[in-house]
């Protein structure tokens, strides 16, 4: 199973990737070897259409086809589509990663990979073109758990944290990325109107997925 590791300061992201049936599965962990608690972006807030109650969607990610021909998978803040005002932004929620602790996660994306985000759910096949990819990159956003910067999202559930000062947080968000070479994989790329941030992945490591 291909494995990759990325470190940023005292935080280490370790990720394995595998094809399981008709999906790509990431099994990853983040370890905090420092003295400061961090918030790991881990879900998107979603409202139930029937009840209006909000819950955490831990499967929410943003995916896109990069200029580097990589399929990017982001656990973090989705870029705003054209026409969406900043006040309407869907901000991710996270969990605290205390010093000396590790969290473990499993994330599955169906094949063929396709571009989607909290703003743009999976669409009709006519909205895409098929493109070969040279690699797959998983990026996880983190930021310091500073007082005044984050607040517990108790309207969702205890243990979830949201950014309370987005402007201040924008300069403190950091990203860790693990990258893998790919062979024989394709991605459904939207034909128009989809934002694609530039996050150059590190050099792919290990055998191809």
Which percent range fits the helix content? under 10%
Q: Ends: how far apart?
A: 8 Å
**Low-confidence runs (pLDDT<50, min 5 residues)?**
none
Number of strands: 16
What is the H/E order? Answer: EEEEEEEEEEEEEEHEE
User: Radius of gyration in whole Å, from Cα?
Assistant: 17 Å
Mean pLDDT level: 92
Assess the beta-strand content as a share of residues.
over 45%
Please provide a written account of the structure.
2% of the residues lie in helices and 48% in strands. With 209 residues, it is an all-beta fold. The chain has one domain. The protein is globular. The model has no long low-confidence stretch (mean pLDDT 92).
Secondary structure layout:
Layout (H helix, E strand, L loop, with lengths): L2 E6 L2 E10 L2 E10 L5 E10 L6 E4 L4 E4 L4 E6 L17 E5 L4 E9 L2 E2 L13 E5 L2 E10 L5 E3 L8 E3 L2 H5 L3 E8 L4 E5 L19
Parallel strand pairs: 7-12, 10-16
Antiparallel strand pairs: 1-2, 2-3, 3-9, 4-5, 4-8, 4-12, 6-7, 8-14, 11-16, 12-15, 13-14
Index terms:
209 residues; mainly beta; nine-stranded mixed sheet; four-stranded antiparallel sheet; 2% helix; globular
In short:
By secondary structure, this protein is mainly beta. The protein is built from one helix and 16 strands. It has one helix at residues 166-170, and strands at residues 3-8, 11-20, 23-32, 38-47, 54-57, 62-65, 70-75, 93-97, 102-110, 113-114, 128-132, 135-144, 150-152, 161-163, 174-181, 186-190.
């Amino acid at each position: 199973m291909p494995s990759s590791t990325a470190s940023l300061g005292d935080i280490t992201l370790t990720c394995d990737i595998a094809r399981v049936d008709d999906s790509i599965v990431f099994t990853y962990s983040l370890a905090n070897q420092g003295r400061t608690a961090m918030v790991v972006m881990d879900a998107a807030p979603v409202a139930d259409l029937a009840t209006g109650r909000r819950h955490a969607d831990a499967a929410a990610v943003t995916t896109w086809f990069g200029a580097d021909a990589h399929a990017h998978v982001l656990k973090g803040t989705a870029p705003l589509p054209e026409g969406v005002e900043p006040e309407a932004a869907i901000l991710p929620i996270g969990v605290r990663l205390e010093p000396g602790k590790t969290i473990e996660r499993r994330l599955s994306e169906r094949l063929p990979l396709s571009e989607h985000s909290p703003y743009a759910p999976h669409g009709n096949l006519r909205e895409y073109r098929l493109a070969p990819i040279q690699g797959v990159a998983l990026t996880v956003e983190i930021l310091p758990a500073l007082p005044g910067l984050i607040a517990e999202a108790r309207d969702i559930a205890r243990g979830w944290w949201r950014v309370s000062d987005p402007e201040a947080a924008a300069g403190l968000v950091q990203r860790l990325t693990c990258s893998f070479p790919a062979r024989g994989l394709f991605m459904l790329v939207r034909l128009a109107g989809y934002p694609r941030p530039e996050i150059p992945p590190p050099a792919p490591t290990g055998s191809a997925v």
